[in-house]
Design a protein that fits this description.
mainly alpha
Amino acid sequence: MPRSLSPVADPSASASPKGPSTTRQRCRRAAVPLGGGTLAVIIITIGAFVGWWFLPFAAGLVIGLAGRHRSLRSVLATAVAAAVTGWAIPLVWQAAHGEPVAATARAVAAVAGLPASAWLTLGVTLLVSAVQALTGVWLSRAVSGLAKA
């Protein structure tokens, strides 16, 4: 019988020494930002339909305060993803339902002195939402840091 080129793994050696409870804890720790980010996307999307343009900042504040015991990288990623997605959904929804989103974006670009490109204006719009969320996270981290001192 020919020998296999790959070694046979010992089933006891592949098991995690930390056990299944650590895996469950990791899943729970990952579920909290996912759930919070999803809630933020829903709130920002509804706010964008209503015209509340400041909600990415508010969401950044809440995400920053809620994630003050998490790594800054994961908090920033959650806040930016929620803000950009929350503003992109209404834009895509309106464009899909026949609203002149691209024409409006070109008109705004012309008024702002930018090249008449709808994609550029929409990109700047999403960038503004990301900057609002980042500013909210920064402010919440700064205030919570002052409270510790």
